[in-house]
């Protein structure tokens, strides 16, 4: 894999520029992180240095497709990486914040049956630069919109399992906080429930939010929906979440994709309420997005509403997450899956890349 522009640390950049005046390092770093400029846009640099940077610091992400929906409030990109793997990034504007959802791996090895990324299997971990560049591009796009917006939040909820690419994810968190200037309190790592990762995260200096994709509150059902539960069962997972809260004093949330007659029954409400109440966790209910490789459908809108109300009656802080970008396949792994079966969505612009580049299959 090539080193790309956001892979370098400031020290790496300094050694690369050995022989140049020292202030060039600051100039370039400010250009990349504060102004979010590409090397060819760094107009304060001499031409020869600019050309060298263009040559030696390629971008990580080549756009393949871009879709805009919700009146411009949701932008979704499909990127191809230098080795032909492809990943997705989604930018979402809300009234009070703008959030980018980033991928941490190309593919995913966790094999949750209802997830489009899980259905396609694992390709590889992303580098720090491949993760950070998704944030930089979204931040720049947010500023350039009308009205101009400031990117405030990052959720590690795109393709991949962040805890299975731990060091790169923490590297990216550190860069997003220290160099892009986002508050750690506005960063959320979402995990399928990898306990050693949660425990390690509790020892990191930065207090990020933790989201756990629970989806079932008894082991029999969770073993089926989220296969990693066989290794990290609910009781141990709940204990690790409790310890995280104690160590970090951050908000914990549970993700729950509502699947008709599978995890939306009255017993699921009671079991989930017991766990969430104890941990004072916020529950995010997401009506399941149907995917080609999974026969079951999402709960009806009425059932979603009742599920949420009953949880609240039982003392749980629960909300239904508005489904953003459903018409552009913005759920995890869906834009890429749509491309692989040759289906383009209506609001999508396909950008100059070959089919080979799109699917990552040679
Ligand atoms: N691997 C991490 C982060 C990526 S998935 C994790 O599991 O948390 C981001 C969220 O989208 C997870 O909660 C995941 O379970 C959910 N998700 C995946 N496929 C979905 C689908 N088809 N419909 C609704 N939510 C889905």
The number of domains is 2
**Unreliable residue stretches:** 352-362
**What is the element string, with H for helices and E for strands?**
HHHEEEEEHEHEHEHEHHEHEHEHEH
Which distinct ligands sit in these coordinates? S-adenosyl-L-homocysteine
Tell me the radius of gyration. Answer: 21 Å
**CATH second-level architecture of the largest domain:** Alpha-Beta Barrel
Identify the strand order in the major beta sheet: 12-11-10-9-8-7-4-3-2-1-13
CATH homologous superfamily (4th level) name of the largest domain: Aldolase class I
Number of helices: 13
Assembly status: single chain
CATH class assignment of the largest domain:
Alpha Beta
Q: Strand content of the residues, in percent?
A: 15-25%
CATH topology of the largest domain: TIM Barrel
Distance between the termini: 17 Å
Rough shape? elongated
The helix fraction, in percent, is 25-40%
- Per DSSP E runs of 2 or more residues, the count of β-strands stands at 13
Instruction: Please state the structural category.
Output: alpha/beta
